Amino acid sequence: EKGRYDHYMHKEIHEQPRALEQTLQGRLGDGVALDDLADETLDGVERVAFVACGTSYHASLYGARLLIERGVPASAHLASEYVTAPPPARAGTIVVGVTQSGETADTLAALREAHSQDQPTLAVTNTVGSTAARECDDALFIRAGPEIGVAATKTFSSQVATLALLAEQLAAREGTGRGRPFRRALAALPDGVRTVVESDDVRSVARQFRDSDAYFFVGRGTGHPVALEGALKLKEITYEHAEGFAAGELKHGPLALVTERTPVFAIDTGHNTEKVASNAEEIRSRGGPVVAVGPADSPLGDRADAHLPVPDTDPALTGVLANVHLQLLAYHVAAELDRPIDKPRNLAKSVTVE
Ligand code: M6R
After folding, report:
1. Residue to substitute in 7, 96, 104 for testing ligand 1 pocket (most ligand atoms within 8 angstroms of CB)
2. Is residue 124 in contact with ligand 1, taking CB distance under 6 Å?
3. Cα 64 versus chain centre, distance
4. CB of 99 within 8 A of CB of 123?
5. Residue 341 and residue 113: Cα distance in Å, rounded?
6. Which of 175, 220, 234, 277 is 20 to 30 A distant from 319 in Cα terms?
């Protein structure tokens, strides 16, 4: 039940610290322990191909970057595109379907395609007993608890945390894991999320920008999937136009859209920060308001109209914290505009047709 919250989405945003604790429970110690996986599941795995849709695709893009940073080749595919043009099967590739529900038709189709090519498959899902969990060779559960709101929130954070564990586990075999400092940062992630959720710094920003023509989100590295996710959340529940871009792409087209009525949320995850800061200047010099989302000492802070601060953590996890601000932004803008937050028009929680 919603308890003291007006909407499931708001409740689920607030549940994230607890959801993350459950995700990480028993999986961090002297190393990473993913006990749900059979011993042989990761044997011979040299490469990871993620297939997913929507928010789960953004978590997959994030997870692929965590693997690549550790020297493990990885790619993320929109499940519908994977089926349309399946990449050539290669020995040593595991196809990982990331799906909260475990029932998304496009993702199931991509996993079936991989299976038909004799590729090993793994489901990363929130739902025990789901079709994805049953049909894949193995399943890894994100343990976020039930999510009722159509907008995926806590499951994104738990998916990224689970993929971070998987990345560490795969990299540890090559000696390229980040080891204890990263495990400590992961263990502290629930507290970082709690700080962001409780501060609710974004409420006044939402009020300030509620009548904008459009909302843009830019980032680099892990900030790129967070930009895509921030835009998806906002368009899904506010019905306002929102787009996320790789910050480097701005001047290749989207900059033409920037006016004083299009706030740009610039996400600093420590990847090429100086370049994100100069993107922010390009936006401001064209009259666009900039909201920095990043660490308190981010150089973006001084070059922005507002700053949503993110607690200190390992840079690989900054994006998870930044994303929580953007979830709250979407929520508060939608509340200001009186939208039906938990059941946005035309959308279903689980999309069971291709
Ligand atoms: O259950 P899944 O994770 O497979 O669902 C995938 C998407 O349909 C889902 O993430 C969708 O994009 C959300 N409504 C976004 O908030």
Report:
1. 104
2. no
3. 11
4. yes
5. 35
6. 175
User: Model pTM?
Assistant: 0.97
Rounded-to-integer distance, Cα 258 and Cα 265, Å: 12
Q: Would the CB of 56 count as within 6 Å of ligand 1?
A: yes
pLDDT at 1: 83
Q: Are 26 and 165 in contact (CB under 8 A)?
A: no
- The number of the ligand 1 atom at minimal distance from the alpha carbon of 236 is 16
Q: How far apart are CA 51 and CA 125, in angstroms?
A: 12
| pLDDT given at position 352 | 87
pLDDT for 226 equals: 98
Q: Is 12 in the pocket of ligand 1 (CB under 6 A)?
A: no
Beta-bridge partners for 32: 28
pLDDT exceeds cutoff 90 at 90: yes
Among residues of the chain, what percentage have pLDDT more than 70? 100
Please compute Rg for the chain using Cα positions: 19
Which H helix or E strand runs over 50? strand 47-52
In the prediction, which pLDDT does 220 show? 96
Q: Count other C-beta atoms under 10 Å from residue 212's C-beta.
A: 18
Q: What is the mean pLDDT of residues 62-84?
A: 98
Under a CB-based contact definition with an 8 Å cutoff, are residues 111 and 135 in contact? yes
Contacts of 199 (CB under 8 A, 6+ apart): 309
Q: Strands of 100-247 (E only): list them.
A: 121-125, 138-141, 215-219, 242-246
Whole-Å CA distances, 4 to 12, 34, 344? 12, 35, 21
Asked if 293 and 244 touch (Cβ cutoff 8 Å), the reply is no
Mind listing the pLDDT tens digit for each residue in 176-210?
A: 999 999 999 999 999 999 999 999 889 999 999 99
Mean pLDDT of 64-76: 98
Distance 194 CA to ligand 1 centre (A): 24
Amino acid at 146: P
Strands (E), 80-232: 93-99, 121-125, 138-141, 215-219
pLDDT at residue 213 in the model: 97
